[in-house]
Each structure stands twice: as structure tokens, then as C-alpha cells.
Design goal:
The protein has 376 residues and is of the alpha+beta class. The strands form 4 sheets. It has a 6-stranded mixed β-sheet with strand order 10-11-12-9-3-13, sandwiched between helices. The protein starts with 5 loop residues before the first helix and ends in a 9-residue tail after the last strand.
Length: 376
């Protein structure tokens, strides 16, 4: 599938790559330049491959409380919540961001690779609720501006009546505003560890918005950025990627995200709310972990990559204690970084381990996540 911005990417000379059934820009210039632009100024991302699912009706909140692990009825209008769709066994089907756009209206944003599954699961789990589920993905474009100059850029093309409200948005909030003459849902969310905005607009208006943002951002150092920079940025920020840190063998607790599971959700009479996966997640919450997601700082020059074994020491490649889920050189920090699942006894910060990088033991040290926090 092609993004509504496909022709813009081609015109900019992007290197395109297949991703979750879409042909998306991997990079426009260099991975390093795009990564550094986001950290120092701003980057412009096309996220139109993500899935947008509308859940509306008098029982929309209740339906989502049943279907997801979060407490969505507690989310105020104009706010967003990071949550997950889990199976009955507690494993993660997808991680999601849910925006409450009205008292009876929610927008669920799913990963591209899981959008169809999320749509089907929400429909199946909502049959006893007074709710309407609609797939808006085909008709929606999603563009992100990320970086320390994001606010200046976005507000420079925002309608005068909306500028103050857009500038005042807090993290994980959103509102309807006119940007570049287009009605948009503007959210202060992102996946880079930087300040920024994500803008949902009709697919037919995507090109107008994209070009307006590029023009407005040029004097501020904004550059278009592809999937490669997006991945290195989210890795530095310690943000999980579905298919790497999260999958159908993983519970939220395994990934250190047990906080998103709201076991205190209750019925009107105070009884525990029986959401999908509750029993398994209660048991997991009360048990000791068999593996822990940690950050690894490379002490050498070679970067660990997804799937590489983590071993107990540099002189014993057979003593496997875990597996790398994501890894790359860190452009911001100047050394290799990785996330990995390891056994609990070697998960303490400061523990020195090694990664088997194609038959060679590369020394690493366990560090806290995230690797990078933006200056306040």
C-alpha cells in the first residue's frame, strides 16, 4: 500500500522500503542527519501507515474498558492514554494510543502490522455494548513533527484563534484545530523522546499539510525523516516496538509496563471489572518474573542487534542469559545501546554481561531505561 504522501517521498528522493504491507520512506538523506535533526531542531515524519479506529456510542468507554487493559472511562475528553490489547493469556496483541475526542467518542491508534487484528478484536469484544466501531485508516493521514523546534513550526501555520491552545497542549493531550487551513486533530504525542505533535487530517489534505510544514520548518532546521531515524530515536528513548519488545509471547509486566494494566477497574457495584486477560494478568502481577527487560550499554564498538544472545561473560558464549530485542549505535550518546530480555539474577543496573555478535563476545553493562531524556 502507498501512503497518501507517496509522491512527496519520491519527489524528495527518499529510499523506500516495505513495512507492514506499506511502502514507506526509510530515509531521505542519511540516518544520522535525520536523527540529529530531531534531537537538535525538528523532523517531519509520515505515519499514515498507522491504523485509526473510531469507537463511539453511549457505551464506548465501557466497551474499551472491557477490551483493553487500561481504564478508558477515566480518560478526560481531550486526553490520550497509552494502553494495550491483550489476549486471554495476558500476552500483548498490540500496544495502542487511545484519544478521547468526545464524551462518547474515542480514536484508537494501532500499529500498522496489527491494525486489522485490532479492528477485528475490538468488534468481537464489543458485541454486548451499545457502540459503533469504524475503520478510518484509509481516509486518515498522520503526520508528526518532532523535536525542540516543533511548537514554533506547528503554531506558525496554525489558525490565529487556535495558536494559544495548540501551544499550551500538555503531553498526551489533543484538540481540534486548523493547521495550514486544514481541520486537524492535533496531539502532543510522539515516539522519539522529544517534544512534538502528531496531526491527524483527511488523507485528501495530507499533501497540503506536508508541504506547509516543510516550508514553515525550513528556517528552523526541520528535515523529513524516515523509519530508520524513527527507530534509533525511539530506542534511545527506551520506547518498546511491537515485534521486538512486545509480542504474543510477552505480557505488559515482562516489558516493565505493568503500570498500564489497571486491575483496580471496577463495575458500578464495586466488583472487579472482568476485562479480557484479567485473570492471567492478575496472576502475572503477583508472580516473580522469569525475565526482565533491561537496557544495555555497549562497552565496545560493535552494536548488538535484534535476536543476538546475551551471555554471562565475555569468555563463555554458551552461558546464555537472555536475548537482545533492539540494538543500534546511539548517535546522541556515542556508544552502542540495546534493549534485551535477561534472567532476573543478571538484571541489576551495573551488571556486566556480553552479547554474542556473530561469534564474538562484545562486553555490555546493564543500565537503566531510557538511555536518553530530553533536556527540560
Amino acid at each position: 500500500m502507498h501512503s497518501p504522501l507517496h509522491d512527496e517521498h519520491v519527489a524528495l528522493g527518499a529510499t523506500l522500503t516495505p513495512f507492514a504491507g506499506w511502502l514507506m520512506p526509510l530515509r531521505y538523506s542519511s540516518d544520522l542527519a535525520e536523527h540529529q535533526a530531531v534531537r537538535q531542531a525538528a523532523g517531519l515524519f509520515d505515519l499514515s501507515h498507522m491504523g485509526e479506529i473510531r469507537v463511539s456510542g453511549p457505551q464506548a468507554g465501557a466497551a474499551l474498558d472491557h477490551a483493553l487493559v487500561g481504564n478508558l472511562t477515566a480518560v478526560g475528553v481531550g486526553r490520550a492514554r497509552y494502553t494495550m490489547l491483550c489476549a486471554e493469556d495476558g500476552s500483548v496483541i498490540d500496544d495502542l494510543v487511545v484519544y478521547r475526542t468526545g464524551e462518547e467518542d474515542f480514536l484508537v491508534v494501532a500499529n500498522a502490522s496489527n491494525a486489522a487484528v485490532v479492528l477485528a478484536e475490538l468488534a468481537q469484544r464489543s458485541t454486548r455494548f451499545e457502540v459503533t466501531i469504524g475503520d478510518e485508516s484509509e481516509h486518515t493521514a498522520l503526520v508528526a513533527v518532532q523535536g525542540p523546534r516543533a511548537q514554533e513550526i506547528v503554531t506558525s501555520i496554525t489558525a490565529p484563534d487556535d495558536v494559544d491552545a495548540v501551544a499550551r497542549l500538555k503531553y498526551y493531550t489533543g484538540l481540534e484545530a486548523t493547521v495550514a487551513g486544514i481541520d486537524a486533530l492535533v496531539a502532543r504525542t510522539g515516539y522519539t523522546g522529544e517534544d512534538g505533535y502528531e496531526l491527524f487530517v483527511p488523507a485528501t489534505e495530507a499533501t497540503t499539510l506536508w508541504r506547509a510544514l516543510l516550508k514553515a520548518g525550513e528556517p528552523h532546521g526541520l528535515v523529513p525523516a524516515g523509519l530508520s531515524a524513527r527507530d534509533s530515536l525511539r530506542l534511545e528513548a527506551g520506547m518498546p516496538l511491537y515485534g521486538n519488545e512486545l509480542d504474543r509471547t510477552t505480557t505488559p509486566h515482562d516489558a516493565g509496563l505493568g503500570r498500564v494494566v489497571k486491575l483496580d477497574k471496577a463495575e458500578a457495584d464495586g466488583a472487579p471489572l472482568p476485562f479480557v486477560g484479567r485473570a492471567a494478568l492478575e496472576a502475572r502481577d503477583a508472580s516473580q518474573p522469569s525475565r526482565v527487560l533491561v537496557g544495555l550499554q555497549g562497552l565496545g564498538r560493535r552494536a548488538a542487534r535484534h535476536g543476538f544472545p546475551v551471555v554471562r561473560s565475555t569468555d563463555r558464549l554458551d552461558l546464555v542469559v537472555g536475548q537482545v530485542t533492539s540494538g543500534a549505535p546511539s548517535p546522541t550518546l556515542g556508544f552502542p545501546i540495546a534493549m534485551a530480555y535477561v534472567t532476573p539474577e543478571v538484571s541489576g543496573v551495573g551488571t556486566e554481561l556480553a552479547v554474542d555478535v556473530r561469534g564474538r563476545a562484545e562486553p555490555v553493562r546493564v543500565v537503566g531505561l531510557p538511555f536518553y531524556r530530553r533536556p527540560q
